[in-house]
Amino acid sequence: MSKAxxxxxxxxxxxxxxxxxxxxxxxxxxxxCSELLTQFHEQVAYERVDQVFFDEQLSAICRTQAxxxxxxxxxxxxxxxxxxxxxxxxxxxxxxxxxxxxxxxxKVVINECVNLARRFGSVEGHKYVNxxxxxxxxxxxxxxxxxxxxx
Length: 151
Fold this sequence. Notes:
By secondary structure, the chain is mainly α. It has two domains: about 1-65; about 65-150, NusB-like (N-utilizing Substance Protein B Homolog, Chain A, Orthogonal Bundle), CATH 1.10.940. The chain is about 70% helix and about 0% strand. It is built from eight helices and no strands. It is globular and about 45 Å long. The N and C termini lie far apart (about 40 Å).
């Protein structure tokens, strides 16, 4: 295991940035998960990310994409295929983390995804991502959201 796979906030943020790129490429070019993992493992940027986190997240999102999209569909105001591919990828990441990564606080998930949308998305895309993931958190992490509201 290399130093780059060590846990760290910066390494996880960089892993999410690569995830956005991989999910965008999946949507635009139609690459499957194994192709994407191979391609991204060869990139210099991969050396600077939390590699275990990236590999686990990409594999899980690819494996459960249809179910994640069904979940997202309940929190958006338009058909899924009308979403910008960058925002769609970010919502896949955020929804997956809200559903399956309970050790990551929901506020961290939303903040990370909003920052990704600011960096990679359309001009107002971060507001949309924030609203969608806020609604998702209230449903998927209701107990955590209520506990935070009380304190």
